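question for whoever is on the cluster today: can someone run the full assembly for these? two chains, 1295 residues total. i dont have access anymore since they changed the login thing
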Amino acid sequence: MAHYPTRLKTRKTHSWVGSPLLDRKLHYQTYREMCVKTEGCSTEINIQVGQFVLIKGDDDENPFVAKLLELFEDDSDPPKKHARVQWFVRFCEIPVRKQHLLGRKPAAQEIFWYDYPACNSSVNAETIIGPVRVILLPPNDVVPADLKNEKTLFVKLSWNEKKFRPLSPELFAELNKPQEGAAKCQNSVGAKIKSTESPAWTPAEHVAKRIESRHSASKSRQTPTHPVTPRARKRLELTSLGNSWMSQQASCASLDSPGRTKRKVAFSEITSPSKRSQPDKLQTLSQAPKAPEKTRENGLSYTEDDKKASPERCMILRTRIPALKTIDIRDERTLTPIRGGRSSSVVPSVILKPENIEKRYAKEAETQNEATPTPHRVHRKSSLLTMNRIRQQLRFLGNNKSDQEEKEILPAAEISDSSSEDEKASTPPLPRRTSRTGSRNLRSLKSFLKTPTKTPKKSPKPRTPRCATPQIRSRNLAAQQPASVLEKARLRLHVSAVPESLPCREQEFQDIYNFVESKLLDHTGGCMYISGVPGTGKTATVHEVIRCLQQAAQANDVPPFQYIEVNGMKLTEPHQVYVQILQKLTGQKATANHAAELLAKRFCTRGSPQETTILLVDELDLLWTHKQDVMYNLFDWPTHKKARLVVLAIANTMDLPERIMMNRVSSRLGLTRMSFQPYTYSQLQQILRSRLKHLKAFEDDAIQLVARKVAALSGDARRCLDICRRATEICQFSEQKPNSPGLVTIAHSMEAVDEMFSSSYIMAIKNSSILEQGFLRAILAEFHRSGLEEATFQQIYSQHVALCRMEGLPYPTMSETMAVCSRLGSCRLLLVEPSRNDLLLRVRLNVSQDDVLYALKEE
Amino acid sequence: MSSRKSKSNSLIHAECLSQVQRILRERFCHQSPHSNLFGAQVQYKHLSELLKRTAIHGESNSVLIIGPRGSGKTMLINHALKELMEIEEVSENILQVHLNGLLQINDKIALKEITRQLNLENVVGDKVFGSFAENLSFLLEALKKGDRTSSCPVIFILDEFDLFTHHKNQTLLYNLFDISQSAQTPIAVIGLTCRLDILELLEKRVKSRFSHRQIHLMNSFGFPQYVKIFKEQLSLPAEFPEKLFAEKWNENVQCLSEERSVQEVLQKHFNISKNLRSLHMLLMLSLNRVTASHPFMTAVDLMEASQLCSMDSKANIVHGLSVLEICLIIAMKHLNDIYEEEPFNFQMVYNEFQKFVQRKAHSVYNFEKPVVMKAFEHLQQLELIKPVERTSGNSQREYQLMKLLLDNTQIMNALQKYPNCPTDVRQWATSSLSWL
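^ ran it for u. tokens below:
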């Protein structure tokens, strides 16, 4: 769906309140509170961690609701403010086909705890609008209908993309005291783990089952402190002596295996299209026959249900754990012979990894495949310095992995131990721990089985373009701002600079606006054909119309609409237009044929009432195919009653419909046409003046000269702007004193005009060598003799030799003359037959004979 | 070489000379951005200012550098880029994409190359994923994301720009120019071409989006400057290790440039072509004649090199022909004279040859027809004669119409130099009637 930033919105400034807390991840600065200030309004709103907030979304009426879990700033430059949240969903955000699951009518202000770990929980803190009041209701209570305050929202149920459930009591208790709750939220553990059975169990799955049951058992104890199985506890105590460096190694090593990386790559596709837009994507994609649904509330990160018969499985869930974005959960069966005589074992492991770190070290990881450090715990004692040292150590240690295997299990427990200690000590929430407990169980089991661990690592992942977010890297140094008047003028004169208004196209603007607006208001569709030579402002005018309509839609003057733009020149092939339209309309990807079908279905069949779509087709003539099916479809869809599609087609030629379109296509296009005339000189002048408003950079005559010249030649506004831009450059160069305020005079613009329009042929002839000039002379003589405009090389050569004899010059050999001929041919002063270099080569002049004579005579 | 003293001397020289040859050859063959720009200071300033504005201000631009082959287009852009990269705040701040119309023969390949050089996300190693359409939308998306102030400017250098205009719909050019004229990632599109009619090749929409900046390189220098270039190109740099030798060498170059015969050679060369590449060719050939026993270049070296340069290739081939083949060529020449450039066939040539042999020739053996046919075919293989129409299988070879690809003057010149040419053949060549 096309998303357009609106101009009308008031700006909000976000700032931190209080000093940063200890940087837990070494790269984050966490805060307890932030302050939102609205521009033009003196009120400030302070938002604290743990409060419920509104977050800006696509729909201005119903912003997203979330609970703020953490505020932090990353180390990018400039630092970005992030917030980690627990989402709530409104009823309207739940997919339509699933709304019936609620089984009753939702109350007006009812929202649902969004219990779906795959949802990205990290948001830009700048999108936070303000606090909101949320009240939790026990399952039996009725949602009070329209209490005193409209702003209050009520939570009663949770929604996990599958079904609605009542809130668990501990969550309920914890949520109702938002201030302290944030720190403790991770302690509450849901008891809703339902193991999913499949009829056939292999031995390995028995193991898996055991893990699961133990795991769930440990969880279901619901103790406020972290639950630990006795075995894990024991080991933990035993190993608590191990130094923290070791723990480092282990956690890093566990993130290191290239094998993991590959699978990670496969799944990175799933995780990266974030947020709610396609909430069930992950589930459908995961191989598990039954999708994970036993995720617990409040940032519990771990689903352990996917222990099904598929040979190996990995899942990456994007969870809502504060400070930890990605959690790899994978169960894999490694087919390694083990002591117990079992043929296979299940080694589930949980890998927690802060994503920022991953990004930061993505490059590094490329070179040092062995060690991608995850500085989980180092920060406690250390600064970056130690961390670096550790990293070096790791790099060194990474070479003998086999040695690490033994140690690895111990530090794993150690990590979790230290983390639990840490949590008690520090206020910021660390719900990761719950997942850690799970991991500990599994790890202890692993140690029991003595299987070699796979050590996953994140490396720069090869992504397919499907999910990549393409972007040119940003510049390191800020672009310099224009300093002088001339530079300012140049910036404004650049074609890319969007002016506030489009002068001289008021009539056309009004016509298009009225057309589209009427279609929008009538809920109908239609076509409009816009033609005009290049550089007459067709596309710019339509863009302006759309912009105004979008503003009007925001002000509720016209119904909301969707705007899509395609350009024939930006397609590789006419049928690709379907693909582009579909993608921009729904975000789907499909082949051209399939996309055509989907679009036809969407536009031609009576569907649910939808908003109007405005489709701008630029460079229409390139969509021409032999059967003209693309054009036919484009103009046929709007004729359907339910389509509500407005097509604005732009092309250069006025008579395109008559010239290249079949009757049935042009008849569907209709007669709503508009043609943009080339700009006249006064219009061009007005355009230039409006751009240079309040900027004294040009003499009036200079502007007028450019306008007149361009109007006489093409009426192309782009040309006009380019010439003026060049004139400012010439003026700047020619200036003697760098400080004097430059004023572009008529001489400067004259020079620019000459530079751009003068033919270079004459200069080229004047600067060619004597032999080349002689050859041109011989050509003229031969043409004169034969009375034809074409001669063979042999004829010209004999003419040339004769001329040389007459002037007493040494005459050149055939090879030299041939070289001259091909040189002149390559710069197209002559037209010669391609790939033929013998006496019978036919030669013609590409310049008029008079020009050649003029150029040769000068000397 | 004769005396011991000169031998030891020549040893030192040999050392230096191998260095000299290495330095100078590098200079003649490579377009190193270190060499000087000749007569293109204005153009250079224009281009480097433009690039700087793109790099520093994030202003999008498009420009074409037009000039005949060997006029230093590539050198100009290399120079400008090198200078740009030397500015510290710029070098980190800029991306370059180099394309060549001879390599990227269609938009599909060009797009892959661009995404590869930009190192976008769909590139892994040297492989680019995705179909053509995906790549295009991907690249456009990537470039659209940026804006003037925050994105890293990209400089596109399109060598052999004219070949890009032959791509289907000129999609690539349209999109590049469109980006350069809209508020997206700042880019500078620099096209290098030798065609003066390049703007006519652009489609009207593409043309409108092109900013119409053209930088012309014309070789607009005169002969005195040409001599100066000659001197500069041949002189050794100051940092040459063997100072004494370098001094001597440079002195010799100075003397050479003042010598009259050298000036003549240069003038002749200058008249034929102002192209610096042809000067390099001349210097290279004369440099090859410099050996340990002949350590300094002389005017004779230059003259002989110049002769090599201006050799007529066809006449050289004629020198290597047999007497029979020469006779056939002379017969063809007469036929051409008689029938005014009309095509001939083997039978006509054979008859003419027969007439000559029977009436006059004492020195030329009367060859049998198949032998003459073989000689005729050899001439065709050498492309001294060429069939008028394409050879079809069924037509008889004797009657296939042919044209001679040698000019009269070429034949006469070649005959004069032909070693051991029988007198009567030479006489027959001068006049077809001489046997009467």
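summary bc i know u wont read the tokens: The CA atoms of residues 801 and 807 of chain A lie 10 Å apart. The longest strand of chain A covers residues 64-73.
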